[in-house]
Amino acid sequence: MNKTLDIKIGDRIATLELVSQVGNIVEVKVDEKLYTLDMIQVEKGAYSILIDKISYNLELLQKDSAKQFEVHTYNQVFDVEVIDAEAKYLLNRGGAETDEGALSISSPMPGKVIEIPVKIGDKITEGTVVVIIEAMKMQSEYKVKKDRLVVDILVKEGDAIDSNQPLIIVE
Q1: Which is higher by pLDDT, 81 or 59?
Q2: What pLDDT does residue 88 have?
Q3: Per-residue model confidence as pLDDT tens digits over 91-148
Q4: Residue 58: what pLDDT?
Q5: Is 88 helix (H, G, I), strand (E, B) or coil?
């Protein structure tokens, strides 16, 4: 029965795996930690959950898309998004963007490096293409989301690459 998906809660991405379900008893792993839940749907979008003898009430409100929710508990509200294959691809197109420090640009799928229009030491501006990858007969441009400095280039044109392989380091 194992079904796995990634969910984004605020700024955190967690892996959620449904291990088993028998009636109201649901076993889930969140980032490899196993939880046993006694869970019932009390009305559409509202759930009562018992975890380790502690009761939680959740209300899920769908937001702008079928993958985005606002989750209400007794005293907190969380923005939650289901990260499916399409969302993972879009998140990975520019690497794991951070405000400071090094950033690795990578491709979410295997492919071939077609062009690297930058060189080490280049100061690049937001939107600059740093590498073009061909995967599944389509070319994708990978751009930076803010002004950066090219620190290292780990591949060369013509190289075959693996999914999530670091290609270019910027800071």
Answers
A1: 59
A2: 61
A3: 555 444 433 445 778 877 788 999 999 999 999 998 899 999 988 778 888 888 889 9
A4: 92
A5: helix
**Residues 8 and 79 reside in one and the same domain:** yes
How would DSSP label each residue in 50-79? EETTEEEEEEEEE-SSTTEEEEE-SS-EEE
Dist CA 151 CA 119 (whole Å)? 9
So what's the pLDDT on residue 95?
45
Same domain, yes or no, for 119 and 57? no
- Pair (107, 158) in one structural domain: yes
Distance CA 96, CA 164 (A): 11
Q: Pick from 48, 16, 49: which is nearest to 33 by CA?
A: 16
Cα distances (Å, whole numbers) of residue 121 to 101, 116, 118, 151: 15, 13, 9, 6
Q: Mark which of 62, 83, 104 sits at the end of a domain.
A: 83
Helix/strand/coil for 96: coil
Give the count of domains, the chain: 2
Residue corresponding to tokens 């509200």? 77
